[in-house]
Specification:
Chains A, B, C, D: Belongs to the DnaB/DnaD family. Four copies of one chain form a homotetramer. Chain A is of the alpha+beta class. Chain A has six helices and three strands, in the order H-E-H-H-H-H-E-E-H. Chain A has a two-stranded antiparallel ribbon with strand order 2-3. In chain A, a hairpin with a 5-residue loop joins strand 2 and strand 3. Chains in contact: A-B, A-C, A-D, B-C, B-D, C-D. Chains A and B meet through helix 1, strand 1, helix 2, helix 3 and helix 6 of A and helix 1, strand 1, helix 2, helix 3 and helix 6 of B.
Chain lengths: 127, 127, 127, 127
């Protein structure tokens, strides 16, 4: 029995989140609830559901589906997530969330950090 | 230059979080801020800092260091995280956070889920 | 253009392998080619192909499809991987590889290690 | 007792390997033993040992320490791994392996794939 639990744990798998998300979300203007909603979307997508509803998302969270819908709208408007269209093999149109805009913003953060540390380095060398 | 950014991304690494944490934290009585604080502790530990201060934690979050300290206290009291003592190779005592209690609670959640689905299965078979 | 490559990298994702596999496969009687074949199966499964053919596997490897088939047969016979039957939602039968036997063997390794270190501890305390 | 094993499993952690390594190593001229040696180096580094010896590496593998040393030399010569120098906080020089050259080669593979699929796309549109 115990071994079944362990296999269940292993088979459930993990959600792998870039470390820099944890150190940079505040700087990008996001709060803890925003990030957890994004991670819920990401977790649903990893399990094959690429367009979870506000109801599905809120079932895992302490906020209502109305609040989920409202935060999702804000995240789309502010360019953190986007909605893409896809085609199934049977040529049926469907919508899905994309986190590409978020990854691109994080890359910009990394680039900015790098520039700043180079600037500090060079002003240090000048003195 | 762009390639440096990519290497930085790769070398920053990821924080790997069990999927079941996302589906079960609400049921365990935790909210989004609690979970993000736990993930910040986990992320610091992955980088080698096993006992981050409330100040370090709040520098990445939208809550104050006072709020961090107060939530940490609550999480320890409610048995989600514990404080363990360790010895360095030079025999100096140090404290560190342990997330073992959280993983054990998640295992209990998995076990409970399993029992319930078996109960439903058998009551279904009886009818 | 460069940013596209970066997004492709991120979206390709990672294969997450338990660290103890790397420290224990030799002890379990497996060699480097066996393990790489298992990791190829695991990688195909993560992308949604749960029963890759020897041809698909060998297309990524330096061994022939015949050698892949022969090693797969050996791994099934020795109880490292199993073949399970599944049902699609349209009730069509299909076969898939399962790595559960491997995970269970690794758990036994961990348990064995623990016992040995406890035995050493207690014989140390007796002297 | 069983729960201890589970915690040990969780705390051992995982080695996260970019999926594209599995689909591209053959094309880059590497075989299964080469890749497993690289993954062993990576796994040691994740545990804090940034310059494992051939003896340490071969203790986990089915090849001798002499063979490990010889493959490592080949991988450095062919530009898959490099040896970098570092300074400890006490200003002591040390050497460590770097996998940056490998990640850069994988990025080139991704870029090449992209170009080819675009060329096929455009020759398809011309006909």
């Amino acid at each position: 029995m115990e071994k079944d639990i362990l296999l269940a744990w292993i088979e459930e798998g993990t959600v792998n989140i870039p470390s820099i998300l944890f150190t940079n979300y505040k700087r990008m203007g996001l709060n803890e609830t925003d990030i957890m909603l994004i991670l819920q979307v990401y977790s649903f997508q990893n399990k094959g559901n690429s367009f979870p509803t506000p109801e599905e998302l809120s079932s895992n969270m302490t906020i209502t589906s109305g609040e989920c819908a409202s935060i999702l709208r804000k995240l789309v408007q502010q360019g953190f997530i986007s909605i893409e269209e896809g085609n199934t093999t049977e040529d049926i149109l469907f919508e899905k969330y994309s986190l590409k805009p978020l990854w691109l913003k994080l890359l910009d953060c990394l680039q900015e950090e790098k520039k700043q540390s180079q600037r500090q380095q060079s002003s240090f060398n000048e003195n």
